Amino acid sequence: MSVDYYYAYGVFFAFVALASWGGGDFLIQRTTRHLGDWETLFLIVAFGTVVLFPFVYTQITSYLSVVLVLAVLSAGVLLSFVASMFDLEALKRGKIAAVEPILALEIPVVAVFSLVMLDEVLQPIEILLVALIVLGLIFVSLKSRHFKSIRLEKGVFLMVAAAVLWGATAFFVGWGARISNPFMVNWYISIGMTAFTFGYLVLKRDVKNMASKVFRFPRLILATCTLDTIAWVAYAYASVFIPVTIAVALSENYIGVAALLGLIVNRERLLTRQKAGFLFALSGAVLLALFINGV
């Protein structure tokens, strides 16, 4: 397969992840209101564990017998769980809109990991376009009052830690997809996260309460779990074909898609800087996609 086809496949899967995460993030907000944060997280990873199993069951032994594969995939599990803890705690202590822009830090974190551990070096124009995407995503998430409040928000430092951990998680998912396959890395992380989140819910004695709510919102839960699972698998595939940093930068535009869905469905109003940020991020993603495909 030629390099051009590799890049084309990578860009395609990155945009699938973008669309799926955008819709999934929008639905996750609704699901957590009905079920709770940890309950929603548990259902998503449990769904992934079950749905992805048919794609990996014949390969589990062969892949997990390799020390490097086991180490990378296990790191992905631990990072996912710790990142979730910091993320959810940050949202409890601070306003979601004030800490949300910090998640754009995931992209430079992935860039550093990719450079140090995989020797992936971006060209100057790629770095410029990735920076444009990061800037655009920050402005999409930033509300008018946050220039003053973000420094005082209690959840800011926790969300910085969460962004670093999510960036590390994204890197290990991409690396794991390369040394195993996209289904295996996501199944392994899903089953590990299922064990962690179920244990947490048992300790909190929330399992029975969660079970009673599940049957009240089956379509919402199914759609949420499906989109999130597709997004992670698509992102993993993108990381196989193109540099991990670029795969993250392209798919991270789901923040803008989620904002656009809020505008359309919930009739939310976007500020001028948010509209500009959305255009910056989208333009950066399109130009980056065209550049790596040699257009």
Contiguous runs where pLDDT drops below 50 for at least 5 residues: 146-153
What's the mean pLDDT score? 83
Order of SSEs: HHHHHHHHHHHHHHH
By DSSP (H or I, 4+ residues per run), the number of helices equals 15
- The dominant shape is globular
The gyration radius over C-alpha positions equals 19 Å
Find the structural class using helix and strand composition.
mainly alpha
How many beta strands in the DSSP annotation? Answer: 0
The amount of beta strand, in percent, is under 5%
Intertermini distance: 18 Å
Biggest pleated sheet: none
Helix share bin? over 70%
Question: Your description of this structure?
Answer:
With 295 residues, the protein is mainly alpha-helical. It contains 15 helices and no strands. It has helices at 3-35, 37-56, 60-64, 67-93, 96-99, 106-118, 124-141, 146-149, 156-179, 182-204, 207-214, 218-241, 244-251, 254-265, 272-292. α6 (106-118) crosses α9. The longest helix is centred in the first third of the chain and has 33 residues, at 3-35. The protein is globular, with a radius of gyration of 19 Å. Residues 146-153 have low confidence and may be disordered.
